[in-house]
Amino acid sequence: MSDTSVIPVALTVRNLFEDLLGRDVNVSPGDPMTAADLSTGVIAIYTDTSQQLYAVLGMQLTLAANAGAALGLLPAGAAEDSIEEKKLFPNLAENVFELCNVLTSLLNREGAPHVKLYQVIYPGMDLPNDARAHLLALGKRLDLTVEVARYGKGKFSLSVA
């Protein structure tokens, strides 16, 4: 069986964020999320058609809040309040869920198993051990700093099985 998994390139991630948010987005190589980032981060778990873990995406709270506010056309202050309280407000969480769902397109490609969003873990929720280990492991991964114009930036880590 050939390996059909693919790591998207930074340009693809930037273009998807820009198209979705309707504003400039800058991406640059970044540090991977750490164990300390996970308790306040937003983690998306993706599975293949056989419900096997396919990929784990992590966003620092700063990125999730800023992207969620930008997607909802909310003022930057909404994201700043959320970051200050170290939780993702429900209106931002709803937008981030949609963002994570759209980011599934980074993982699907012709000839590969169909990948879908399985679950989004928000700050304060328990992260399954397999997803935690996968996100923190070395291997097929993309680590970026994503900056949303007029909002802010944060870590973006994607680890593919």
Folded structure, characterized:
- By secondary structure, this protein is an alpha+beta fold.
- The protein has one domain (about 10-160): CheC-like (Chemotaxis protein chec, 3-Layer(aba) Sandwich), CATH 3.40.1550.10.
- The chain is about 35% helix and about 25% strand.
- It has a 6-stranded antiparallel sheet with strand order 1-5-6-3-2-4, sandwiched between helices.
- Helix 3 (about 60-70) runs antiparallel to helix 4 and helix 3 (about 60-70) crosses helix 5.
- The mean pLDDT is about 95.
- Please give the CATH architecture: 3-Layer(aba) Sandwich
Rounded mean pLDDT is 93
Q: Please provide the ordered H/E string of secondary-structure elements.
A: HEHEEHHHEHEE
Q: State the CATH superfamily name.
A: CheC-like
What would the CATH topology be?
Chemotaxis protein chec
Percent of residues in beta strands?
A: 25-35%
The tally of beta strands, per DSSP, is 6
- Secondary-structure class: alpha+beta
Largest sheet: 6 strands, antiparallel
Q: Which stretches of 5+ consecutive residues score pLDDT under 50?
A: none
- First CA to last CA: what distance? 14 Å
Residues in helices, as a percent range: 25-40%
- The rounded Rg comes to 15 Å
> How many helix segments?
6
What's the domain count?
Answer: 1
Going across the major beta sheet, what is the strand order? 1-5-6-3-2-4
Shape: globular
